[in-house]
């Protein structure tokens, strides 16, 4: 039971990232009908926004000591962060919680990037075949990836979690199991709760706001909504920006788990497209459910007992694709996809 619960927690951790990225992908496909292969780059950009904010908050003023010297007789360097100079103890707190502070930068930055991407490029391919959309957005993803590589280098850049959230918590004891049976990193639990909050916020926005209701109506019947005098195109452009924000936030909060690198967007992109297809193209609940389901399956596939069944071979990177093949053979529109979508 301990091992099963641990793997479920690991699966929910992975599934949170899959679900957030897949949710953004589905928002774009459901509103604009665009297969956006540059979506993984938005995840990467969100992560590097955190790198930028952490770097800015960690800038230091360097002075030479007048009284202390190093073993070579040279004056010692005294390094003090500007945030601490300007804000005292609160400045130290800002540096420590730079991941959370970066979210204030990620939201407007990703919104502008998403709108610029849609207005500058994507809108010209609305009526083009999906193959054209894939080619142009995949090319854009490569360009963005190379830009990040040139600016930040090819090596991963570690981003620390706040000191108070770096340890582990005894989940087993909290669930009434024997103490010490399940020790789990706090930040991974924080990420799961953060993902649940964002997913819940997106669904609440679409369900309970006038803007969201119009968007959902436009997803179901764009022409009829247009005939009512509503400029649905502007609302869909805004939804592209919101999808970029969701994915950017997912990348920003994931940085303490996976150090940002220039190819992380591509690493997640393929998996998340599989998640979207399994859940059903255009289905928001399907994307979220498939994200968590495949994350849990991938986690269980990494267990030693499962590897033993396959003669010691690891299938955790294969299980997602096997599930996708089975589902698409039996139900081409995915688990929760609308009838007629991706069935031909």
Automatic annotation (TrEMBL):
It holds the Pfam family BPD_transp_2. GO terms for molecular function: transmembrane transporter activity. Coiled coil: none annotated. The keyword tRNA-binding does not apply. GO terms for cellular component: plasma membrane. One of its GO terms (biological process) is amino acid transport. The chain crosses the membrane at residues 15-35, 42-59, 99-122, 189-215, 236-256, 268-296, 308-329. PANTHER family: ABC TRANSPORTER ATP-BINDING PROTEIN, BRANCHED-CHAIN AMINO ACID TRANSPORT SYSTEM PERMEASE PROTEIN LIVH. This is Branched-chain amino acid ABC transporter permease.
């Amino acid at each position: 039971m301990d091992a099963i619960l641990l793997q479920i927690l690991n699966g929910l951790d992975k599934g949170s990232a899959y679900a957030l990225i897949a949710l953004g992908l589905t928002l774009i496909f459901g509103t604009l009908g665009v297969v956006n292969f540059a979506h993984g780059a938005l995840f990467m950009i969100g992560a590097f926004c955190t790198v930028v904010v952490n770097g800015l908050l960690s800038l230091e003023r360097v002075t030479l000591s007048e009284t202390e010297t190093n073993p070579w007789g040279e004056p010692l360097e005294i390094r003090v962060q500007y945030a601490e100079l300007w804000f005292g103890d609160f400045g130290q707190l800002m540096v420590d919680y730079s991941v959370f502070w970066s979210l204030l930068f990620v939201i407007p930055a990703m919104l502008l990037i998403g709108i610029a991407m849609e207005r500058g490029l994507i809108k010209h391919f609305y009526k083009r075949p999906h193959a054209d959309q894939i080619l142009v957005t995949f090319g854009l993803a490569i360009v963005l990836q190379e830009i990040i590589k040139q600016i930040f280098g090819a090596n991963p850049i570690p981003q620390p979690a706040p000191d108070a959230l770096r340890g582990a918590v005894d989940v087993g004891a909290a669930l009434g199991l024997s103490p010490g049976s399940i020790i789990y990193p706090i930040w991974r639990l924080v990420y799961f709760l953060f993902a649940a909050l964002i997913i819940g916020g997106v669904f609440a926005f679409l369900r309970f706001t006038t803007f969201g209701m119009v968007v959902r109506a436009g997803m179901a019947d764009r022409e009829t909504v247009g005939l009512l005098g509503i400029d649905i195109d502007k609302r869909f452009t805004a939804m592209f920006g919101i999808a970029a924000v969701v994915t950017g936030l997912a990348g920003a909060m994931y940085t303490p788990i996976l150090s940002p690198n220039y190819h992380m967007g591509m690493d997640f992109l393929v998996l998340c497209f599989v998640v979207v297809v399994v859940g059903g193209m255009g289905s928001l609940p399907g994307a979220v459910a498939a994200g968590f389901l495949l994350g849990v399956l991938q986690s269980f596939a990494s267990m030693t007992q499962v590897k033993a069944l396959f003669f010691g071979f690891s299938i955790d990177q294969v299980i997602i694709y096997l599930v996708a093949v089975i589902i698409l053979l039996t139900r081409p529109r995915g688990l929760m996809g609308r009838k007629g979508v991706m069935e031909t």
